[in-house]
Design a protein that fits this description.
Layout (H helix, E strand, L loop, with lengths): L1 H32 L3 E4 L10 H9 L7 E4 L7 H20 L4 E6 L2 H11 L3 H4 E7 L17 H6 L4 H7 L9 E6 L18 E4 L12 H12 L1
Parallel strand pairs: 1-2, 1-3, 3-4, 4-5, 5-6
Amino acid sequence: MLGIHVRIVALFAVVASLLLPAAGAQAREAAAARTPVVLVHGYNAGPGVWGGLREDLRADGYTDAELFSFGYDTHRSVNEVIAGELAAYVEDVKRRTGASRVDLVSHSFGSLVTRWYVKFDGAGRSSVGHWVSLAGPNHGTSTAWACALWDQACRDMTPGSYVQKRLAEGDETPGDVRYATWWSNCDEVVNPDNSVPLTGAANNAAGCLDHNALLGDDGVSQGVRAFLRS
């Protein structure tokens, strides 16, 4: 009986040795398939605004090596300066991670930066899988007139600006990129509220939230993370 028991234990050991490498390989493949996320903050802000969403993404299984925050001077031109810097940053993320694409999640003014990159940079559409805009002034906001006289970024955000006209030309959601927006009917910065949604995007009403509250809202976070998994 003891001999039979030993042989059974040995058989289980052999089976386990065959299954464990396969399971490990599957886990590595799943991790390798996860698309890096680049977070792009808004006007007069910095990478620190993404603390809550970064934590939620980590809880979903992302590692710090898959989460990136693009920091930039928000008082310069979308089309002439910042979008080009974002393009170089995305290429660096792709090189560091080995990924062929990234997912972009942007807030407020960052939505114009990321849209310009996707629409007009030669590699933009092929380098982005999902694009997310939280409270983005995608068709301009009247509140930007308050600082438009001395600030280029504010001029870019005004309705009818050069940047707004160019982004509105043709397809608002070009290429194979998947687009989604979240907007609030209580946004005190983006006016009118319907400036945020884009034709061809999955447009989501976030409820009555302040402009910056979309960054830390649990419902918005859940929706964004589900969209990135889609």
